[in-house]
C-alpha cells in the first residue's frame, strides 16, 4: 500500500490530503506539521478584527477532526528537520518516518523589515493562527496602529483596523498603495477610499527605527525624520516561500522550491505545493493556485500523471471600503497599463504590444466588469 507523507497542515497540505483520499481510499496518508494542525481560513486573518472574530473562531476543525474526516494520521507540533531523498525518509523531532511519496507544503514566512531600534522584537507579523492570537490580544488595548507595508495584505489589515475603530497609519515607499500591482489612477482611487474609511498614510517613506516610547507606546522614526507614535506596530511587507527544509535536502530552489508542471521537485518521489513553490519562475501565494495544484497532484500521486494548468485567477482584495479585483500579468511580459476612470471607480487594463489583454485591475464600481474582462483574456 502506497504511503504519502505531507509536510505542513495549511491549505495546501489539507487540500491535497482531501483530494488524494477522494481518489484512493486505501492509501496511507501521514501529515507532519510544526503547528497544532487546526484547519482555518488564512485569508480571514486580515479581515477578522472588525467582524469581532477571536482566534478560536477562525479555526473550523481540530487536527483530530481532520484526521477522522479524511482518514489521516497527523503528527502535530512536530517539525521535520531533514529529508533523505535516497532512503526516502524524513527526520522529525520525534524520530524517522518513511515515505513512497513526499509532498512539501511548508508555506511562506513573513519577510522581516530592515529595522533598527530597541523595540524591533515587538513588531508583529500575522501569518498564522498563533500570530493572530498574539495580534488580537495586543490590539485590544491599542488605539494607534502603525502598519509597515501598503501591499495587498497591508491594505486589508489597514481597512480592517480602521473599521474596528483604530487610528491606523500606513507607511511605505511607493507613491500609492499596492504600488507594484496597481497603476497610478487605480492606486490613487484606493488610497482615497481608504482615507475616507479612516486610514492615514506616510507614503514615499520607509520606517527606519522602532523604539520604546512613553507609557508603553512605540516611536517609529521615518526616513524623512518624522517620529510617529503608535501603541502597536504591524509589519506586512510580504512573504517569502519557506524553502529551508528543501534546501537542506539538496532540492533545487530559486525564490521557492522549484517544481515542474507535475509539481515534481528536482528529487524523485518528492513533490511540493502551495506558497513554498516556484513554477516557471513564478511564485503564486494565493488560494486558487493551491486548489488547482492539489487536484492535479492528487491525480498524479494516485497513478494518473496530471500537469497543473492554471486558468486566469483573479485575486479579490478584501478591502470593503474599496472593492478591488486584480489579475496581475503572469510572467516577464512587456506591456502597458491603460486606465479609464468610470463613475465610482477605475478600470485598468494591462495590454501587450499587440493590444492583447494580459491582466487587469478593477477598482470601486469597476469590479462589476470582472466577468467581461475574464472573457476578453480568454
Ligand atoms: C493575512 C493573509 C491574507 C490572505 N488573503 C488571501 C486572499 O484573500 N485570497 C487568496 O487567494 N490568498 C490569500 N492569502 C494567501 C493564502 O492564505 C495562502 O496562499 C495559503 O493559505 C497558503 O497555504 P499553504 O498551505 O501553502 O501554507 P501555510 O498555511 O503557511 O502552511 C504551511 C504549513 O507548513 C508547516 N511547516 C512549515 N515548515 C515545517 C517543517 N519543517 N516541519 C513541519 N511542518 C512545517 C506549518 O506549520 C504550516 O502548517 C492570504 C495570506 C495571508 C497571510
Outline the structure in words.
The radius of gyration is 22 Å and the shape is globular. The strands form eight sheets. The protein has a five-stranded parallel beta sheet. Strand 22 (315-317) and strand 23 form a beta hairpin. It contains nine helices and 26 strands. The protein has 378 residues and is an alpha/beta fold. Helices cover 24% and strands 31% of the residues. The mean pLDDT is 96. The chain has three domains: 3-109 and 239-301, FAD/NAD(P)-binding domain (3-Layer(bba) Sandwich), CATH 3.50.50; 112-235, FAD/NAD(P)-binding domain; 323-377, 2-Layer Sandwich (Enolase-like, domain 1). The structure holds flavin-adenine dinucleotide.
DSSP strand content: 25-35%
In which range does the helix fraction lie?
10-25%
Any idea how many domains?
3
For the record, give the distance between the C-alpha atoms at the N and C termini, rounded to a whole number. 42 Å
Say what the CATH topology of the largest domain is.
FAD/NAD(P)-binding domain
Which hetero compounds are present in the coordinates?
A: flavin-adenine dinucleotide
Averaging pLDDT over every residue, what do you get? 96
Number of helices in the DSSP assignment? 9
Largest beta sheet, briefly? 5 strands, parallel
CATH class placement of the largest domain: Alpha Beta
Q: How many beta-strand elements? A: 26
Rg from Cα: 22 Å
Taking strands numbered 1, 2, ... along the chain, how are they ordered across the largest sheet?
5-2-1-9-20
CATH superfamily of the largest domain: FAD/NAD(P)-binding domain
Which regions are unreliable across 5 or more consecutive residues at pLDDT < 50?
A: none
CATH architecture of the largest domain: 3-Layer(bba) Sandwich
The global form is: globular
Amino acid at each position: 500500500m502506497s504511503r504519502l507523507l505531507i509536510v505542513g497542515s495549511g491549505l495546501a497540505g489539507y487540500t491535497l490530503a482531501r483530494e488524494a483520499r477522494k481518489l484512493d481510499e486505501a492509501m496511507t496518508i501521514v501529515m507532519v506539521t510544526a503547528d497544532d494542525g487546526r484547519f482555518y481560513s488564512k485569508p480571514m486573518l486580515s479581515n477578522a478584527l472588525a467582524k469581532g472574530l477571536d482566534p478560536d473562531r477562525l479555526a473550523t476543525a481540530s487536527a483530530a477532526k481532520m484526521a477522522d474526516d479524511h482518514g489521516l494520521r497527523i503528527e502535530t507540533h512536530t517539525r521535520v528537520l531533514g529529508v533523505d531523498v535516497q532512503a526516502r525518509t524524513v527526520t522529525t523531532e520525534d524520530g524517522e518516518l518513511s515515505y513512497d511519496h513526499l509532498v512539501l507544503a511548508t508555506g511562506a514566512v513573513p519577510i522581516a523589515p530592515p529595522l533598527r531600534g530597541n523595540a524591533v522584537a515587538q513588531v508583529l507579523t500575522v501569518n498564522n493562527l498563533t500570530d493572530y492570537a498574539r495580534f488580537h490580544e495586543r490590539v485590544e488595548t491599542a488605539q494607534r496602529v502603525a502598519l509597515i507595508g501598503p501591499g495587498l495584505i497591508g491594505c486589508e489589515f489597514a481597512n480592517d483596523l480602521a473599521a474596528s475603530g483604530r487610528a491606523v497609519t500606513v507607511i511605505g515607499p511607493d507613491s500609492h498603495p499596492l504600488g507594484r500591482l496597481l497603476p497610478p489612477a487605480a492606486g490613487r482611487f484606493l488610497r482615497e477610499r481608504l482615507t475616507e474609511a479612516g486610514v492615514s498614510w506616510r507614503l514615499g517613506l520607509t520606517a527606519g527605527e522602532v523604539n520604546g516610547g512613553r507609557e508603553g507606546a512605540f516611536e517609529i522614526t521615518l526616513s524623512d525624520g518624522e517620529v510617529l507614535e503608535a501603541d502597536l506596530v504591524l509589519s506586512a511587507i510580504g512573504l517569502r516561500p519557506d524553502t529551508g527544509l528543501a534546501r537542506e535536502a539538496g532540492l533545487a530552489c530559486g525564490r521557492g522550491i522549484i517544481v515542474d508542471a507535475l509539481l515534481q521537485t528536482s528529487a524523485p518521489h518528492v513533490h511540493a505545493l502551495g506558497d513554498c513553490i516556484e513554477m516557471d519562475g513564478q511564485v503564486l501565494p494565493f488560494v486558487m493556485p493551491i486548489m488547482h495544484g492539489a487536484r492535479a497532484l492528487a491525480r498524479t500521486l494516485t497513478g494518473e500523471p496530471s500537469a497543473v494548468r492554471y486558468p486566469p485567477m483573479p485575486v479579490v482584495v478584501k478591502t470593503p471600503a474599496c472593492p478591488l479585483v486584480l489579475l496581475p500579468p503572469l510572467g516577464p511580459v512587456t506591456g502597458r497599463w491603460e486606465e479609464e476612470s468610470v463613475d465610482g471607480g477605475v478600470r485598468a487594463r494591462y495590454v501587450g504590444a499587440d493590444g492583447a489583454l494580459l491582466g487587469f485591475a478593477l477598482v470601486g464600481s469597476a469590479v462589476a466588469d470582472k466577468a467581461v474582462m475574464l472573457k476578453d483574456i480568454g
